[in-house]
């Protein structure tokens, strides 16, 4: 995450922007909705009895992971239901376990419990109709605006909902973007940045650091070829992760570092030309790039993270400098063998289990 602090005036400005969209009486808009209020441990049974259409489900009382799993299962099973779930009045849950809501395609809105302190993107993978996240003014850790989840003080962009499509604009007061903030927004094809933002900027619908030296995030729905401008020196962590339809990326000759998981899951990426300026390839940088067939490791590269090309299908790999490599414990003498048998690079196992380094003096 790229994170810094703005002055108090900017924070106050964004806190106004992030005032919840709902009233304090109801956590979610109820226009054209049926509304039921139910104790959390009885909610699954009540949901199963609902007819088709839109329903606002307001939970009360204590809630925990097993109860939430049952609620999610009931919502998903009632396929004709469009569910808006308000958890803001519940107690007892500080975090939502991984994948609790994953694949729940008929969940459309979600208001978080005021007691919640942590939430992660994988929880909502495949929630293709979930368009709005909300946090009440009483939330201890979160705020929301335009359906997007922010930190309480409004300086950190935490999570964009899965159903968001088209374009979003990062507000002026944002100083940090969570590494997975846009990872479940599969149809988002453009990210803009408010011109007053002091820490980020956008070019061609892609987010960069303000100084244009680090590419921060490409939207997952991007299909057009990406040409990264000269002057960019780093591809940030997860910057292109799961851009599954992106086929072409041109890297600049100024690039020195590809951070971990930078191109994770770019399944349509069939070729990549690494520039001679490159010195470092992070862990799992090309993990799951299943269309990638060939790669040349430039002469200046001195670090390759573990499993950098794991689950690729490389048929050819070239090391422009194959000497001096070590895994920190011993010298590696089998780089030539790996180059001749690239399947060892695709499936590291005992051949590529750790980071490797090249020392110029060896």
Question: Can you walk through the features of this model?
Answer:
The chain is of the alpha/beta class. The protein is built from 5 helices and 24 strands. The strands form 6 sheets. The chain has a 9-stranded mixed sheet with strand order 12-13-14-16-18-19-21-24-23, with no helix packed on it. A 5-stranded parallel sheet has the order 1-2-3-4-5. A hairpin with a 4-residue loop joins strand 7 (148-151) and strand 8 (156-159). The radius of gyration is 23 Å and the shape is elongated.
Q: How large, in whole angstroms, is the Cα Rg?
A: 23 Å
- Helices and strands, in order, run as HEHEHEEEEEEEEEEEEEEEEEEEEEHHE
- Name the poorly predicted regions: 1-28
Cα end-to-end separation: 35 Å
In short:
The chain has 362 residues and is of the alpha/beta class. The protein has helices at 8-17, 43-48, 65-77, 335-340, 343-346, and strands spanning 34-39, 53-62, 81-91, 107-111, 132-134, 142-145, 148-151, 156-159, 166-170, 176-177, 188-193, 200-203, 206-209, 214-217, 226-227, 234-235, 249-250, 257-258, 280-281, 294-297, 303-304, 316-319, 325-326, 356-358.
